[in-house]
C-alpha cells in the first residue's frame, strides 16, 4: 500500500481545525520522497530583516506552483517554479483526503537543529480568508509548537513524524501562531512541504 489513510488525530484546540495523520505516507514512500526532494529541489536561502538588521534565514526554502502567483512573507517575495512530478504526486495524495485543490507549495529544508522557523501564522493576503495549509514532514522528526494569540494559557506541542500530514483549516491561522523551535540535540535534515492555495 503506497500510503495509509490512518484515522486523523484531531488536536481539539479552541478556535481551530487541526488534524494530524501520523502515518499518512508509508516509511518506504516517505524515504523515497525525502531523497528525491533533497536533490531535485532548487533550494535558496533568503535574507530576512529583524529589528533593523539583516540575517540569513535559518533554513532553506523553495516555492513551486501550478500557476505563476508569487508568495510574500517576512519582507521576502518568492517567485514559483513549476511543480515537479514528485510534488504533483504528493499533492494528489493530500487532495484525496482534504478535498482541496492546492496551487502552491512552500518547501522548507531544516539542515540541523539550529535551523528553525519563528512564531508566525500563515495568514498572508495571498492565501485568502480561512486558508487551508497541508504540511508534510519528511526526514527528522521535529517539535511543532502552537500558542493562542489572545489566550496565553492555550499552548500545545506535537512531534511531527516522518511521513506525517498536519492539516490546518478554518479559523486556525486567525487565532493561533506556530513555530519549529531550535534544538540543542543532534538533528538530521528535515524537509517540510506546506501546500496552500494562492489564486
Write the layout of secondary structure elements.
Layout: E1 9-10, E2 17-21, H1 27-40, E3 47-50, E4 53-56, E5 60-65, E6 71-73, E7 76-78, E8 81-82, H2 85-98, E9 104-110, E10 117-120, E11 133-139, E12 142-148, E13 155-160, E14 164-169, H3 172-175, E15 176-180, E16 190-196
Keyword list:
alpha+beta; globular; 199 residues; four-stranded antiparallel sheet
Can you give a write-up of this model?
With 199 residues, the protein is an alpha+beta fold. The protein is 16% helix and 39% strand. The protein has three helices and 16 strands. It has helices spanning 27-40, 85-98, 172-175, and strands at 9-10, 17-21, 47-50, 53-56, 60-65, 71-73, 76-78, 81-82, 104-110, 117-120, 133-139, 142-148, 155-160, 164-169, 176-180, 190-196. The strands form four sheets. It has an eight-stranded mixed β-sheet with strand order 1-2-14-11-16-9-5-8. It has a four-stranded antiparallel β-sheet with strand order 10-15-12-13. The radius of gyration is 16 Å and the shape is globular. The mean pLDDT is 93.
Count helical runs: 3
Give the beta-strand count: 16
Poorly predicted residue ranges = none
The secondary-structure class comes to alpha+beta
Residue-averaged pLDDT? 93
Spell the H/E element sequence.
EEHEEEEEEHEEEEEEHEE
Please summarize the sheet with the most strands: 8 strands, mixed
What is the alpha-carbon Rg in Å? Answer: 16 Å
The best one-word shape is globular
The helix fraction, in percent, is 10-25%
The neighbouring-strand order within the major sheet is 1-2-14-11-16-9-5-8
- CA(first)-CA(last) distance: 33 Å
Proportion of strand residues: 35-45%
Amino acid at each position: 500500500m503506497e500510503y495509509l489513510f490512518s484515522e486523523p488525530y484531531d488536536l481539539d484546540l479552541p478556535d481551530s481545525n487541526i488534524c494530524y495523520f501520523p502515518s499518512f505516507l508509508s516509511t518506504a514512500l516517505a524515504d523515497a520522497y525525502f531523497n528525491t526532494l533533497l536533490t531535485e529541489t532548487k533550494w535558496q536561502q533568503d535574507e530576512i530583516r529583524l529589528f533593523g538588521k539583516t540575517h540569513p534565514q535559518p533554513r532553506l526554502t523553495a516555492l513551486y506552483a501550478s500557476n505563476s502567483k508569487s508568495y510574500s512573507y517576512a519582507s521576502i517575495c518568492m517567485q514559483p517554479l513549476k511543480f515537479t512530478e514528485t510534488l504533483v504526486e504528493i499533492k494528489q495524495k493530500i487532495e484525496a483526503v482534504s478535498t482541496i485543490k492546492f496551487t502552491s507549495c512552500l518547501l522548507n529544508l531544516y539542515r540541523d537543529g539550529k535551523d528553525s522557523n519563528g512564531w508566525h501564522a500563515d495568514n498572508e493576503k495571498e492565501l485568502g480568508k480561512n486558508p487551508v495549509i497541508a504540511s508534510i514532514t519528511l526526514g527528522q522528526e521535529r517539535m511543532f509548537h502552537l500558542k493562542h494569540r489572545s489566550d496565553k494559557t492555550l499552548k500545545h506541542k506535537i512531534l511531527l513524524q516522518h511521513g506525517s500530514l498536519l492539516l490546518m483549516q478554518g479559523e486556525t491561522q486567525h487565532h493561533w501562531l506556530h513555530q519549529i523551535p531550535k534544538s540543542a540535540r543532534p538533528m538530521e535534515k528535515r524537509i517540510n512541504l506546506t501546500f496552500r492555495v494562492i489564486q
